[in-house]
Amino acid sequence: MTSTIAGFRFAAVSAGIRKDGRVDVALAVADRPAVVAGLFTRNLVRAAPVLVAEERVRSGLARAILVNAGCANACTGEPGLVATRETTESVARALGIPTEEVLPASTGVIGALLPTAKITSKAKELARSITPEGYADFAQAICTTDRWVKIAEAKIETSKGDPVSVLGIAKGAGMIHPDVGPPQATMLVFLFTDAVIKQEELQNALGQAADKTFNACSVDGDTSTNDTVLALASGASNIRLTASEIAPALITVCDKLARSMIADGEGANHVAEIRATGLANDADAKRVAQTMATSLLVKTALHGKDANWGRLLAAAGRSGVAFDPKVASIKIDDVEIVKNGLAVGADVEKAAAEILKGPSYTIEIGLGTGPGSFSYLTSDLGHGYVDVNADYRS
């Protein structure tokens, strides 16, 4: 793991927002105005920090990201917007930068107003604490029900000198069914690169990465009010990249973060990559894979390590995509349990059940000979998910 990302510094403090006293406010600062791109939840109910950050991203430049855990500041009306602006203003003042260049993000319980004073009182301490090595503290501070921090990186080899770096930091374990695009637990993702890149190129590459990763994964089918994905480019490498050059690295980092979030799904023990093939186009394949991945019957079967192929095929059948069930095939890793729409037999189902005991595996459903294919990540769903969420506000 790299120790630094050129052009950025990080810090985290405990502001007392969370009951347990853990670090709960995080700050990332660019040494100079950084090119910024952003994607935000398409949920019609949107938190105050989403509204403010989306507005500020339009300028194309940012200097800092201020994140808090323990309070989503969602469904809080005008007071929530005021709180978001006041907290970012206090940090901007401590850093000596324009308030409009500080991007807010929040995660936690919906309906609670952001405790402004708790954050503003820590602004100077945050500003004094930023270091290039502080990204690990930043990652820890943004966790809520997460069992572990989520950090990923990638290097882009170029002919122009040293590699360009991409660092990703994320949080998420529940309320994970991202639907992010331009226009309680949450998905927050922050990407940092030392590349030189135009804003429109970074936005394009970020959209590509999100569609292949975050918009293709689900823990519980619930899209948060606070989902935010931000990418900042410091330009410190002095190496200019295009969208096509940086997109593969963004996809790699986002894929690692998405897989970590799904593996950390509240109460989850297994990660399943559900792949639909043979459809008329990728859009149809995504619809089938998503329907299967979000089916409660499928997810509970995965929790029970039950190779219940009937649930898989039935979910595909209600996806709204036309196919001939008589040609359907289903494999769990390399074990084929359905061929030509019929069960292969008890012995292979037993072998498949052994695979389902593992932490991760692939389920592939073939529905024809068309070129369309798509993979969707999901987790199993068991008693632990209910335990976490039934007591979430207690």
The poorly predicted ranges are none
Tell me the total number of β-strands: 16
Beta-strand residue fraction: 25-35%
For the residues shown, what is the average pLDDT?
A: 93
Overall form:
globular
Summarize the helix and strand pattern as letters: EEHEHEHHHEEEEHEEHEHHHEEEHEEH
Tally of alpha and pi helices: 12
- The Rg value, from CA coordinates, equals 22 Å
Q: How many angstroms does the end-to-end distance come to?
A: 37 Å
Regarding CATH, which class of the largest domain?
A: Alpha Beta
State the fourth-level CATH superfamily of the largest domain: L-amino peptidase D-ALA esterase/amidase
Give the proportion of residues in helices: 25-40%
* CATH architecture tag of the largest domain: 4-Layer Sandwich
What composes the largest sheet? 9 strands, mixed
Count up the domains: 2
CATH topology of the largest domain, which one?
Answer: L-amino peptidase D-ALA esterase/amidase
Kindly name the structural category: alpha+beta
Summarize the structure in words:
- It contains 12 helices and 16 strands.
- The chain has 394 residues and is an alpha+beta fold.
- It has 2 domains: 8-261, L-amino peptidase D-ALA esterase/amidase (4-Layer Sandwich); 271-390, ArgJ beta chain, C-terminal domain (Ubiquitin-like (UB roll), Roll).
- Helix 2 links the parallel strand 3 (61-69) and strand 4.
- Helix 2 (77-95) crosses helix 4.
- The protein is globular.
- 55% of the residues are buried.
- The mean pLDDT is 93.
Chain-wise SSE layout:
Blueprint: E1 8-13, E2 25-41, H1 48-57, E3 61-69, H2 77-95, E4 102-107, H3 116-120, H4 123-129, H5 135-141, E5 150-156, E6 164-171, E7 180-181, E8 188-193, H6 199-212, E9 217-218, E10 228-233, H7 243-263, E11 271-278, H8 282-293, H9 296-303, H10 309-317, E12 329-332, E13 335-339, E14 342-343, H11 346-355, E15 360-366, E16 370-379, H12 383-390
Parallel strand pairs: 3-4, 8-10, 9-16, 11-15
Antiparallel strand pairs: 1-2, 2-3, 2-7, 2-10, 5-6, 6-8, 11-16, 12-13, 12-15, 13-14
Helix pairs in contact: 1-2, 2-4, 6-7, 8-10
